[in-house]
Amino acid sequence: MRRWLAAVSITMVSVLGLAACGGGGGSTATGQSPAASGGKQQVEVFSWWTGPGEADGLQAMRKIFEEKNPNYTFFDAAVAGGSGDKAKALLQSKLQASTPPDTFQGHAGAELQGYIKAGNLEDLTSLYDELKLKDAFPAQLVEQISVEGKIYSVPVNIHRSNVLWFNPAVLKDAGVAAAPKTIEEFIAALEKVKAKGKVPLSIGSEWTVTHLMESVLLGSLGTDAYNALFKPGADWNSAEVTKALENFAKILSYAGDPQDDWQPAAKQVADGEAAFNVMGDWAYGYFHNPPEGGLGKTSKTDFDWAPAPGTEGTYLWLSDSFTLPKGAKNRDGALAWLKVAASKEGQDAFNPKKGSIPARKDADQALYTDYLADALKDWSSNKLAGSIQHGVAVNQPWLAAINEAVGLFIGSKDVKALQQGLADAATANAQ
Ligand code: GAL
Description:
45% of the residues lie in helices and 13% in strands. The protein is an alpha/beta fold. It has a five-stranded mixed β-sheet with strand order 2-1-3-13-6, sandwiched between helices. Strands 14-7-12-15 form a four-stranded mixed β-sheet, with helices on both faces. The radius of gyration is 21 Å and the shape is globular. Beta-D-galactopyranose binds next to loops.
């Protein structure tokens, strides 16, 4: 399932418009490598966790980093935009210019393998030996961040992509008795909500449409056929894929006005404007975290969850992981950050806020309540499938081609052209 290609090419135009957010304060927010300040050396940590909900997790881990490392200051080089669509383009230009951040967030799986194959990352095997991390993380996760026995990142969490978020009151009002379990039930429920004049399905920016598509592919095809799509010789032109994409088109036809990003789309559900939203479980952090960082909503009343229709028993997973880029200005500072990210303490501070479960197997389970308790249970018992949009199943060039096909589809609604676009994307990028 791995296709390791060179870096994504990007236009400087798209990059120059971007700047690091420095959202955590105390930094210059220029996106340039920060200089030392006040005798303390800065550690530039690159992610896209600036928005409500997800920034909370980063800040919780930052706090521990600063307590443990009084000689370093944390430079928050996060670039706004869910799923990193803007951040990853800027990162690519920084890597190409050999001015990497000290550490950056990269998804375990094909995305990370791309950075490894391009020679962007340092081998972290000695850190793994020092901290005994091979025993701390699930073996199949370590495999996703390794090449030829060398390990290249520190995973901080496991996220679930295939979550159906819904507003219980809106469903009740529309006469939908329970969360739909199949694609057919989902379409019937969407129709009922539409008849009541509410938004049946909320949607955000373009990447959230690809995010929806991966859950519909999984729910329509089943786990084995979904996973087979990323193996050599996969048949993206099959009648089963056609049917899955027809389902996707039908479901998407119930979407409301596209919102700016995933947060405003998720908020429509929590506010009772929309019935359903398919989004990763970072939405849980956003719904649940107290106001300021999150919406402070009440679980099971303002929002509820179920596996995306047709996907029960499968964890469509992804994992955020931190790296040590070659040429990092503050290598020691980056290693200090990686140690916190790898630690039980760091992961148990980060994940309850982020809406994810820890990558470490020895985390304090008592901290993972409510949605997160369900997630822990499912992670230990479900089948696995890799996310498309979030770096597990396809590398960045392949994802760019998929996003392009989906972007065209949003305008054309042409299922045949979408299927051809996806088949071409696979042919061009699969190995
Ligand atoms: C994913 C990332 C998550 C979350 C989400 C929305 O790609 O893995 O941690 O940030 O994007 O921005």
